[in-house]
Write a structure and sequence with these properties.
- By secondary structure, the chain is an alpha+beta fold.
- The chain has a domain of 125 residues: Aminopeptidase (3-Layer(aba) Sandwich).
- 23% of the residues lie in helices and 34% in strands.
- An 8-stranded mixed beta sheet has the order 1-2-3-4-5-6-8-7, with helices on both faces.
- The longest helix is centred in the middle third of the chain and has 16 residues.
Length: 192
């Protein structure tokens, strides 16, 4: 569990699957997702969240408001590689009723902080559909760098849409929401 001032991140459990499905079934949420919501069912959602490359790990957290305890979103980090110390943000979704209230930024700060400090990850990658200005702002504000674009590679809202690729090194993370500064690491033998 990762406790923040306004949200708590808890490892997703079976009882969280229906609220999660309700969230991704919301057209305002699903239209921004790179993965087709038709892929999600009660029977396979848990397995889809745990998909990861061979030799890597996956973490899935539910995002809960501290004031009400309500489930308001989820984040899935996959392809956590123990040797290369990299991880990928596969999903980040917040209930539209909580948009523009800072919950995504706070949750993002919490799980990124967890990856860097508790799991010793040195690099995090992520993708966003072009035009998803909210998630792009969250990535930029957190220190992510735009590393490239896969042009017209996914079909969203009846048209081909590009996917932007983002990357963040541990020393680049903007530690605003928890008021913690990243540990400065010396580069040693090509490792950082």
């Amino acid at each position: 569990m990762i406790q923040g001032n306004r949200v708590t991140l808890k490892v997703l459990e079976q009882q969280d699957m229906q609220p999660l499905l309700d969230l991704v079934d919301n057209p305002d949420v699903s239209r921004l997702m790179i993965y087709n919501k038709a892929d999600f069912t009660v029977n396979n959602i848990h397995n889809l969240l745990l998909q990861t490359a061979p030799g890597t790990q996956c973490l899935s957290f539910g995002i809960y408001r501290n004031d009400t305890g309500a489930f308001i979103g989820f984040v899935c980090i996959n392809d956590i590689h123990p040797v290369n110390r990299v991880a990928n943000i596969r999903f980040l979704a917040i209930d539209p009723s909580c948009w523009n209230e800072g919950y995504a930024e706070i949750a993002g700060d919490g799980f990124i902080r967890h990856l860097f400090l508790d799991r010793n990850i040195r690099r995090i990658t992520a993708t966003s559909s072009a035009g998803n200005e909210t998630i792009e702002a969250i990535f930029r504000n957190g220190g992510f760098k735009h590393e490239g674009t896969d042009r017209k590679s996914i079909f969203i809202d009846g048209k081909w849409t590009s996917v932007k690729r983002w990357g963040l090194m541990k020393k680049e993370f903007a530690w605003d929401f928890f008021n913690t500064e990243a540990d400065e690491e010396e580069e040693e033998d090509g490792k950082d």
